[in-house]
Every structure is written in C-alpha cells, then in structure tokens.
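Throughout our pipeline, every protein is held as a single compact record rather than as scattered files. The record that follows is passed on verbatim for readers who wish to inspect the format:
___
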Amino acid sequence: REHTGFVNKIAFRQDGIFFASISADKSIVIYDTETLEVTRKIDKAHTKGIIDLVWLNDSTIATSSSDNVVKYWSIDSGSEVKILNPNSDGKEKIENQSLGLITSQDAIMSVSLNSNINVWNHSDVESGSTNPSYVI
C-alpha cells in the first residue's frame, strides 16, 4: 500500500530483520519484518521506474532503473551515496536501461537492455569510479 505503481521487487537484508521494496513509482520502501511497519521511504529515488535492488551490506542497498543508472542508498539516512553510470557520455539512452543487478564479494553487475553486463569492482567504486570497471 506504500507504492502507487507496480512493485517490481522485494529483497530481504541478509539478517532478515528488514526488507525493501522498489516500484515503477520511483520509490524505495524499507520495512521491519517483525512489525511490517515502514522504517524508511525514499520518494523520487530515480527519475524513472526502479527495476531491481540488492542489499550490499546491512545499511546500504543498490537500485537500478530505466533511467540508466545504478544508485547506492544509505538506509540509515535515506540519502543517495553513489551513482554508477554504465554510459560513459552520461546521456540517458533506451539501450542503457538497467534491467537487473547482482552483487558478489568483489563486484556489482548490471545487465542493460543492449545485452551488456556492466561490472563495477567494489574497490573501483570505493576509490570514486562511476564508470564500469569493464563491460561484457
């Protein structure tokens, strides 16, 4: 009931204490799993609908959107932490829409509509890089 558009995904934090939902309405909602109360809502998180989300750690999630970017969010403050852009010229293009995310111990990856797999090594992101470390 917190979203006004289609809910595209929910994901539980690793410890199961919270879960997040994302929607075509561009919002992120964080819930307490025990009480089902909303602990944080981030409206207008992206300029277009949010397609996917992953938990990076206990206090940070990453979201991907049809606005071409991957964003990191602080759950504690509700603020945007980083923006990763698979498109080096920074322009929004249909073929760069991010359709999904996956994370590993070493990297975060997004799949774009153009069939690219964009890979950002966590160490590159931590050092300030916003462009993919490499593209498959």
Summary: The first strand starts at residue 7 and ends at 12.
